[in-house]
Specification:
Thiol Ester Dehydrase, Chain A, 6-stranded antiparallel beta sheet, 155 residues, FAS1-like_DH_region, single chain, alpha+beta, elongated, 29% helix
Length: 155
């Protein structure tokens, strides 16, 4: 029986190729669960009255760490199931705030896809996390080890 929903192999990616994920709204529950799971109890995330009085922006701000994790989840769902082998490195820039109620998606450009000596591949992408307002709130450039077609055929 054919398995669906699997990720992309490094040999199927070419430099310059672009794609985007589906969108995902960030909810108040997402924020609360993230705070409780990580212990990231920064008052900007836990005290609405403090945020109103002292916050640098209006709205229920969300940690960039949560936004990044949700973006990675969107990418796992769309391109890394059973093919992502290792996360090796990343450059990361937060460009602006994200708020509860924002819907994010990831726009991804393949910068490099090359083989390793073991038949796997190294894939570097430039990822932009974009809101429904078409604002790029985070940009990051991960380097990952990704299975090749021969690896994926074994699973």
């Amino acid at each position: 029986m054919r398995k669906i929903g699997l990720g992309m192999c490094w040999n199927d990616l070419t430099a310059g190729e672009e794609f985007r994920t589906i969108g995902r709204m960030i909810t108040e529950t997402d924020l609360i669960n993230f705070i409780n799971t990580t212990g990231m109890v920064e008052v900007l995330f836990t005290d609405v009255e403090y945020l109103k009085a002292h916050g640098p922006m209006n709205g229920r701000v969300v940690s960039e760490a949560l936004v990044y994790c949700m973006a990675e989840g969107l990418l796992v769902q769309s391109m890394m199931q059973e093919t992502g082998l290792a996360f090796l490195h990343m450059d990361f820039n937060a460009n602006g705030p994200t708020f509860v109620g924002d819907t994010i998606h990831v726009e991804c450009e393949v910068l490099q896809a090359r083989p390793t000596s073991k038949g796997h591949g190294l894939v570097r992408t430039h990822n932009r996390i974009v809101t429904q307002r078409n604002e790029t709130v985070i940009e990051y450039t991960p380097l990952r080890m990704v299975a090749g077609r021969s690896d994926a055929a074994r699973t």
